[in-house]
Amino acid sequence: MKKKLIITFSVIGGIILLLIILLFTLFGVKNVVLDLRTYNSRFSSEEVQQSVIESGEFAYNMPIFFQDKKSYISKLEKNNPYLKVINIESKFPNTLSIKCMDREEVFAIKMSDERYFILDEDLKVLEVLTSFDSTQTNAILLGGEISVDNVDASSGDFLTLNAGQALIEAFVPAMKLNNRDVSEQKALFESINIRYRNNPITARSEAYLELYDFNGLKMCIFEAEDMFVNKINCLLAAHAAFDPKDAEAFELRILKDSNGDIFAHQMQKS
C-alpha cells in the first residue's frame, strides 16, 4: 500500500513538474513589442523603441499569465513622458504587445520665472522648460486662479490642481467635439485663465474661463461648468464672425439667458 502511494505521488509530482517546466518554457515571455497608433511618431525608430521597452523592466521568461502589467505601464509612462500606453496585450504563447500612442503638448503652466511645465490634455508633465512663449504651434499658457498641489513634479508625473482641474481636463474633449483638433486649438488660443466670481443671479461662486487669441481678443465663458461643450460651440462661431481689428475695443462674452439659451455678447471694454 505504501509503495503504491509513493508511486502515485511520484507520478503526480512528475506531472506537476512537467507542467511547471512547460509553463516557463512555452509561456515564458520572450518578446515585447511596441504597437504604435500614432502616425509620424517620435517612437518610430527601432533604437528608440528598444530603449522604451527596456525602460519597462519586463520580467522575461516569467509566465505570460503572471505579468504585472500595471507596473509596466507605470514605468513606461514615467520613463517616457511623451508615451501614452493604451494597454498591454498578451499574445500567446510568449509575447507582450504594448499598444501606445504619442502624447501631444497642449498646455503650459508657469511655476517660476525659470520653470514651466509643458502638459498634455491629461495634465501629464511632458517637459520642464526654463523659459516659454506661447506661439500658434506650441502649448497654450494656463494662468489665472490656478495653483498646483504637487509643485515638485517632474517629467512623467501628472499634475494635481487645487482648483479648476475638471474644467481644464474638459477643454480639449469639448474642442474636439466641436471639430477642433489639438493643432487648431493651439493655433487659436494664446492663453487661458481660470477665474472665479459671484454669480449676480444665483449669488454663488462660479468658475469662468478667460481666453485670449493671438490678436489680443478677450473671450469669457461664464458658468463654464454648465453646458461647456455648447458654450465652446457658441464661442467658436462668435470668434469666426469677429473682426480682429476690434480686439482692442471689444471683448466676447458667452452667457446663458433665463430660458437656458446660450448666446454670445460683444461688449465694449471699459
UniProtKB/TrEMBL annotation:
Pfam families for this protein: POTRA_1
So which domain of life are we looking at?
Bacteria
Q: Where are the transmembrane segments?
A: 6-29
Q: What is this protein called?
A: FtsQ-type POTRA domain-containing protein
**This protein's UniProt keywords:** Cell cycle, Cell division, Cell membrane, Membrane, Transmembrane, Transmembrane helix
Q: Where is the POTRA domain?
A: 50-99
Species the sequence originates in:
Candidatus Caccopulliclostridium gallistercoris
